Amino acid sequence: MTILLTGFEPFAGSRVNPSEQAARALDGAIIAGQEIRCAILPVDGQRAPQALMDALAQHSPKAVLCLGEAAGRACVSIERVAVNLLDYRIADNAGQQVVDQAVIAGCPAAYFVTLPTRRMYERLLAEGIPCELSLSAGAFLCNQVLYALLHFAEQDGRNSPLGGFIHLPSLPQQTAERLLTGKAAQANMGLETSLRAVRAALEVIAEE
Ligand code: PCA
Hints:
The structure is a single chain. Helix content is 34%, strand content 22%. By secondary structure, it is α/β, with parallel strands linked by helices. A hairpin with a 2-residue loop joins strand 2 (30-31) and strand 3. It is globular, with a radius of gyration of 16 Å. The mean pLDDT is 97. Residues 8, 11, 17, 19, 43, 68-70, 138, 140-142 line the site of pyroglutamic acid.
């Protein structure tokens, strides 16, 4: 069985994105007998959903774990829900700032994540990784991609693949860059810890 692991390219002027680094680092790994394949998605509201659909077609995964960066969050956030709302707080990498629009017009207000969020949360905490269950993936690209994924999985009574999302804190080097440019410090987490978190979450998924 294949598990698709996605990350995002850098955005908001940053040169790196922890989600891209974590996804790339685990590409090709075998975790609890399951093969991990990675795809990196553009931070572009027009292109990201299609890039996800292309990766789904290429890998036919049984489960999909999407990763993104949540600047300012101090813990790994295991998202529980995607809402049918685009309300970008900043422009995407194509320069578009969409407000007050549906991700997919005429579709449900929200979808719940179908991966075992509670078990992932308990596993991460047991491994000493700070994490939280989160009720909002925001209204930017991360929520958009999660909504598109869960909508796809729901079509035609497929209920497949299982889907979910983890937000990772910024990297220490991103906080250092902020300080260098006179901005305020923000919470951060080293890539090693974020990688342990993603691995542990994938173990839980693979064991399902
Ligand atoms: N984080 C953004 C989009 C890309 C990313 O890594 C978000 O939280 O929506």
